[in-house]
Amino acid sequence: MDYDEYTHMLKMLRQGADMARGDDTAKLKGLVAEWVNMDSEATPDPRIDCDDKHYRGFINDACGRLLCPAELDWNDPIVKAGIHNRSDGYLVTDLSFPAFLYERYTANAHNLEEGLFKGKILVQAYKAVFTSPSSAKDVEADGDGADVTASNRRAQKSCNGIKVKKHVAHIIRMKKVTPRSIAYIACQVRFALSSVTSWRTVDGDFDYVQFWRAIVDFFEKPPGRTARRRVDMLIEWWTRKVFGRRGRDDISSASKATMSVNALARQREELADAEFDSN
Q1: Which CA distances in Å does 246 have to 41, 156, 218, 231, 239?
Q2: What is the Cβ-side half-sphere exposure of residue 45, based on CA atoms within 13 angstroms?
Q3: 105 CB-near residues (< 8 Å, 6+ apart)
Q4: d(CA 224, CA 260)
Q5: What angle do CA 211, 85, 189 make, to 5 degrees?
Q6: What local confidence, expressed as pLDDT, does residue 252 receive?
Q7: What is residue 249's predicted lDDT score, i.e. its pLDDT?
Q8: C-beta separation of 148 from 170 below 8 A
Q9: What is the distance in angstroms between the CA of the first residue and the CA of the last residue of the chain?
Q10: DSSP per residue over 106-153, as a string?
């Protein structure tokens, strides 16, 4: 491959990535508004327009609550005023995780890892992008995610033999959630909640690139074995949420040991050891 072919290939790949991101952005623009409008804990008044972003962001109370830095309390009038005025100590930057990343959109100041990356709207957006908007309705129960295997079969052919659209996870053969895909969706949700109408990497004091890196680093650079185990458990939680629980995940070690494949392997080892000892 010569240089011109190489640069052309890179250009085409970038164009494809930009188009995919644009499609996801357009999809989530309306869906995120619908989800916020239906949220019993943050129902906006007036409701968010699914097509117009100008009244989102911090001028909208429901969006502001979700975008608010996790270490601040959006219900405090002083906090709201500080964010609106961009006062010292209230600047919204990529150095703060927004509340929407947290379970029930609330962080524990004494344990900021608790509930992080379990925000309902984050999971909904992930499923909408990777496994279809309809699957985003099912995010409440742990382990009751979309049955992707069944969905894949349906995607091959409908009952009358007509091919139907495959979801993204099926197309790219994605079977588990990855840290970088979570970071990507977090950026998309943050943008959807904002009042900015066209994509940009820097929104005021907030840098999306640094935000993405902070999330990736949380997963890929844990400080020690204990933190690594927590990260692994979080990824397992995400995979169950998005792709569903497999029955084999619940099989105990004792049950696995009695199953014929493992039992046969153990018997063969015992026979080999007995033969060795007899010689």
Answers
A1: 32, 21, 27, 20, 10
A2: 2
A3: 41, 42, 65, 66, 99, 119, 120
A4: 37
A5: 30
A6: 65
A7: 58
A8: yes
A9: 62
A10: --BTTBTTTTBT--HHHHHHHHHHHT-GGGGG--SSTT----HHHHHH
What's the CA gap between 34 and 44, in Å, rounded? Answer: 11
Residue whose pair of structure tokens reads 């085409």 in the numeric block: 12
Q: How many CB atoms lie within 10 A of CB 69?
A: 19
Low-confidence ranges of the chain (pLDDT < 50): 8, 13, 143-147, 149-164
pTM for this predicted structure: 0.77
H/E stretch holding 234 reads: helix 225-243
The tokens describing 275, both together, are 């033969």
- Which candidate, 92, 113, 97, places its Cα nearest to that of 189? 97
- Cα(38)–Cα(143) distance, rounded to whole angstroms? 23
Q: Which residues pair with 176 in a beta bridge?
A: none
Amino acid identity at 59: I
Cβ–Cβ < 8 Å for 21, 157 = no
H or E stretch covering 186: helix 179-193
At residue 98's C-alpha, the angle toward residues 94 and 100, to 5°, is: 145
Kindly report, residue by residue over 180-232, the tens digit of the pLDDT.
999 999 999 999 999 999 999 999 999 999 999 999 999 999 999 999 999 99
